[in-house]
Amino acid sequence: MKYKRLLILLLVMSLWGGTMMFADSAAQKVRVFVNGAEVEDAGIISEGKTYLAVRQLASTLQSLVFWDETTKKVTVFKPNVHMFLFQDNTIFGNVNKGGKYTFKVFAQIDNLLTDIAAVKVSIFDPSGTEKVIQSQNVTTSKDNFWFRTEDVKYNFDSAGKYSVRFFMKVTANEDWKLVSEKTITAQ
Fold first, then answer.
1. Would 166 disulfide with which of 56, 73, 89, 180, CB 3.0-4.6 Å?
2. Longest Cα pair distance anywhere in the chain, in angstroms?
3. Which positions make up the signal peptide (predicted)?
């Protein structure tokens, strides 16, 4: 009787172990790095093909992603957004820690192949606190346009990297999507 139970237990464990090994070989996790940073929940390899999480990858690449439920279609748009920072007529970049500066953000947007509802420019201090520089509804359907903020006065209180980020909203109900970033270093 003991041998029969042991034999059944051994058979069940063998089947379970074989199933787990097959499942592991059928779908293996993939580590993906973009600009040296590892992407969370990157993807899997199954039957020789690599599958990546589109929203995660689009967010990392600062793109807009759309899901159409009726057609079951994913569309990714990557507009070119070039930001320039100016203090008066001088290009603005690295600053002194503790300094108060007045500057404006000038953005050139092209290759925009979808309509958008709004844009926003924010600055994030080294601890991640956001200060909105300017937010504005956009009523253009062009594939390119220019955007300039009003002058902003900002105190660079601590040393570190400050990020000026450009966001877009496709519709008024959606979340902001990051599409460009510029770094200012305070020393």
1. 180
2. 91
3. 1-23
* Antiparallel, parallel or unpaired: β 37-46 and 27-34: antiparallel
Question: Quick check: helix, strand or coil at residue 88?
Answer: coil
- Give phi and psi for 42, each to the nearest 5: -65, -55
Domain residue ranges of the chain, discontinuous segments joined by +: 2-76, 77-186
Residue 53 and residue 50: Cα distance in Å, rounded? 10
Residues composing the chain? 187
CA 103/CA 85 separation, integer angstroms:
7
Q: Are 42 and 34 in contact (CB under 8 A)?
A: no
> What CATH number labels 77-186?
2.60.40.3880
Sign of CA dihedral 61, 62, 68, 69: positive
Contact 170, 148 (CB under 8 A): no
Mean pLDDT in runs of 10 for the chain (187 residues)?
59 56 63 82 84 84 88 92 92 90 95 92 97 91 89 95 95 92 95
CB 73 within 8 A of CB 43: no
Q: What is the pTM of this model?
A: 0.78
